[in-house]
Amino acid sequence: MTTTDFKNRVLILVAPGFEETAVIHCMTQLRQASLPVSLVGLVSGRVTGWHGLSICPDLHLDQVDPYETLKLVVIPGGRQCATMLLTDPRVHRLLNTLIDQDGRVGVMDTAVSIVTQSGLLPASMGVHYVLQNGENIDGFVAELISCARRTQKKEGAAKRIRRESSVS
């Protein structure tokens, strides 16, 4: 897979210590909703989760085009995972670019406090974050799907307006 295979995709970031069940469930539900989802590791190679399950992400962070339009980036739970992700300057750049593009950041339950402590959740940016905050995983994923689809609808409307104005 190359970084140009999907446009407007969803990225689920993973680092050692990620919560396997939540990540796999989230990825599966997003893909079943026909959203283009990629698992992204900090570096190439396998990533081992909190309970010892190892996965091979689709991409590593350096393969993500910094100018690619994204719908959603998900930060999984797991204290070690969230800490590693949020101390990486590449993740900060990715999230800032996503927010500049009016995308959304989904934050799974145990990562919420770490995101808050990292300073990535200023009050003015709250609209761009979807926090699990104790909600069950199915409700959280349903909200992520809804956010990603709203982004698709906005883009479709903007394209229609541009086409209509170029025809006039």
Topology of this structure?
Layout (H helix, E strand, L loop, with lengths): L8 E6 L5 H13 L4 E5 L5 E2 L5 E2 L3 E2 L9 E6 L3 H8 L2 H12 L3 E4 L4 H7 L10 E3 L5 H31 L1
Parallel strand pairs: 1-2, 1-6, 2-5, 6-7, 7-8
Antiparallel strand pairs: 3-4
Helix pairs in contact: 1-5
Please estimate the helix content: 40-55%
Q: Sum up the overall morphology in one term.
A: globular
CATH class: Alpha Beta
DSSP summary, beta strand count: 8
Strands of the widest sheet, in order across it, are 5-2-1-6-7-8
* Approximate strand percentage: 15-25%
Which secondary-structure class do the elements indicate? alpha/beta
CATH A-level architecture? 3-Layer(aba) Sandwich
Specify Rg, calculated over alpha carbons: 16 Å
Structure explained in plain terms:
The protein is an alpha/beta fold and 168 residues long. It has one domain: Class I glutamine amidotransferase (GATase) domain (Rossmann fold). It is 42% helix and 18% strand. The chain contains 5 helices and 8 strands, in the order E-H-E-E-E-E-E-H-H-E-H-E-H. The protein has helices spanning 20-32, 79-86, 89-100, 112-118, 137-167; strands at 9-14, 37-41, 47-48, 54-55, 59-60, 70-75, 104-107, 129-131. The strands form 2 sheets. It has a 6-stranded parallel beta sheet with strand order 5-2-1-6-7-8, with helices on both faces. A two-stranded antiparallel sheet has the order 3-4. Strand 3 (47-48) and strand 4 form a beta hairpin. Helix 1 runs parallel beside helix 5. The longest helix has 31 residues, at 137-167. The chain is globular and about 35 Å long. The N and C termini lie far apart (40 Å). The model is unreliable at 1-6 and 156-166 (pLDDT under 50).
